[in-house]
Amino acid sequence: MWPNKAILLVIFWTHLNAINGFSFFIPFSSSSAQKIQTHKWRQPVVSVLELGGVKIGRDDVVRDDPTNNVPDAILSKLGMQLHRRDQHPIGILKNAIYDYFDANYSNKFDKLDDLCPIVSTKENFDDVLVPPDHISRSYNDTYYIDSQTVLRCHTSAHQAELLRRGHTHFLVTGDVYRRDSIDSTHYRVFH
């Protein structure tokens, strides 16, 4: 029964979490890794932080742009990366999923947990076939850095690029951002 739940959880997680126009190229630093590396958690610094091997400053995310709707409160959440903390419940769950795939599909899946959450609207919407008039594209539902760049709404935003780079089997984990109203089942940053 556990393998079925694990597979369903991964499928659900992928769909739930599913820079060309940005000022820098984000390297896929973990794409060649066969084993997940342990990373120490770092407290985010609001002025400058590092994600996916790239230093990101406040002005890269919170801009004086009419389309920007990223508040400082969300900027402060960038870099938390709870999924990379081995003792955090999200990190424990991620590692259990990785262990399952390692045990049942040894060295078949690349595990990527450090991809930058700043993506283009093409990656976040077009590449995963979100229709142009879909509600998730609205400024009420998505954090826009500018009209062509967003904080990813799902980790599926990386799938097309990974496939273009030759990855055929991969697990992507990471934090995602949505402009949800906070209640008992919704929060603006989740994994």
Automatic annotation (TrEMBL):
GO BP, sorted A to Z: phenylalanyl-tRNA aminoacylation
Keywords, A to Z, come to: Aminoacyl-tRNA synthetase, ATP-binding, Ligase, Nucleotide-binding, Protein biosynthesis, Signal
User: Has the keyword Transmembrane been applied to this entry?
Assistant: no
UniProt keyword annotation of Ribosomal protein present = no
Q: Which SUPFAM superfamilies match?
A: Class II aaRS and biotin synthetases
An example Pfam family from this entry, by short name, is tRNA-synt_2d
The protein's matches in InterPro entries, at most eight in alphabetical order, are given as:
aa-tRNA-synth_II/BPL/LPL, Phenylalanyl-tRNA_Synthase
Task: Give the highest taxon in the source lineage.
Answer: Eukaryota
The signal peptide stretch is 1-18
Q: Which residues form the Phenylalanyl-tRNA synthetase domain?
A: 84-191
Q: Name any GO cellular component annotation.
A: cytoplasm
Q: Name one GO molecular function term.
A: phenylalanine-tRNA ligase activity
* Protein name, per record: Phenylalanyl-tRNA synthetase domain-containing protein
